[in-house]
Amino acid sequence: MPHHLFPPKHQSKQGGPFRMPKKETSAYATVQAARAPRPYQTRELINGLVTNFHEFHGDRQSHDDPAVIGGIGWLDQQAVTVIATDKGNDLTERLQTHFGSPEPWGYRKALRLMKQAAKFHRPIVTLINTPGAYPGKEAEANGQGAAIADLLVACADLPTPILAILVGEGGSGGALALAFGDEVWMTDKSMYSILSPEGFAAILWKDASRAKEAAEVMQLTPQDLLAKGVCDRIVPDTGADFPAALKAAVKPKLAELTAMDPQSLVAKRQARFRQF
């Protein structure tokens, strides 16, 4: 196992006790780090993970969603389906992607590509950085909730490996829709929560200014979620060279998952999520 990864469980492979990483920053500092711009663009991350990436567009029903980038690339000799959320790199792109918040056709595009991957037993890697699904009127009118639900139902039975990696924000069902994986990884500059700390504070205390306090209560940091088994590994985000480091970590895990019998893979995935 690469030295830059924490063990997936609370014990090392040698059976010794696993010491949790020391919590050096506040939960809200983690939120700020998750929201901060990355030193690499989403497409740079994809191209660092796979070569000859061929992007697919559209959900075969209505639109294409620029907030979801999906396609096929090569991880050395292995064909892999990669699906990533994208926040955009300038104001125009950020408005087009709703700052990384997918619409129904984005989730339906992801579902189309996942079913295609399953047909050819091609492993799937999802790269998640989204504050949540877009809550606009048109999105709701066109089945936002149903699109997320359909994706979750499909992932529960998909007979091909799924590795989900949170590389920034992981907000609510919008993130969960792409995180129904055999393993869920987080970078040390990511978060995963049922909603934003501001939204949590506004609902619980009627005061969004208590977001820092809410972040602590929500236990949304990678360290908190690793301890609870919600995520399986924490991968250090090393900045500009992170795409190459991520590839080195992903390759052996996909080989391990691909070697599993599809029925056993699905049963294990379902058991993982049933415990919650």
TrEMBL record:
Catalyses which reaction(s): N(6)-carboxybiotinyl-L-lysyl-[protein] + acetyl-CoA = N(6)-biotinyl-L-lysyl-[protein] + malonyl-CoA
InterPro entries the UniProt entry points to: Acetyl_CoA_COase_a_su (IPR001095), ClpP/crotonase-like_dom_sf (IPR029045), COA_CT_C (IPR011763)
Start-end of Basic residues biased regions: 1-12
Residue intervals passing through the bilayer: none
Keyword Repressor: no
GO MF: transferase activity
EC number: 2.1.3.15
Pathway of action: Lipid metabolism; malonyl-CoA biosynthesis; malonyl-CoA from acetyl-CoA: step 1/1
Pfam families for the chain: ACCA
Residues annotated as domain CoA carboxyltransferase C-terminal: 17-256
Keywords: ATP-binding, Fatty acid biosynthesis, Fatty acid metabolism, Lipid biosynthesis, Lipid metabolism, Nucleotide-binding, Transferase
Disordered: annotated span: 1-21
Name of the protein: acetyl-CoA carboxytransferase
Source organism of this protein record: Lacticaseibacillus huelsenbergensis
